[in-house]
Amino acid sequence: MQHLVRECFKSGGYVFARKADDIAREHGIEKVARLASNENPRPPSEKAIKNGYEALCSSNRYPDERSGSLVSSLIRCHGSYHFVTGVGMDGVIETLIRTLVEPGEKVAVSTPTFSFYALAAKAQGAIVDEIPRNQDFSTDIHEFAARASDAKISFLCTPNNPTGSETTPEEIEQVLREINGVLFLDNAYIEFSDYDYRSLMETYDNLVIGRTMSKAYSLAGLRIGYAFVPQWLVPHYTRAATPFTLNSVSSAAAAGALQDSDHVRETVLHVKKWREQYRNECKYPVFPSGANFVMVDVAPRTGDEMVELLACRGVIVRSCSSFRGLPDHYIRVSIGEDWENERFLEEIKSI
Question: Which residues have a Cβ under 8 Å from the Cβ of 112 and sit 6 or more positions away?
Answer without folding.
Answer: 132, 133, 137, 162, 163, 320, 323, 324, 325, 326
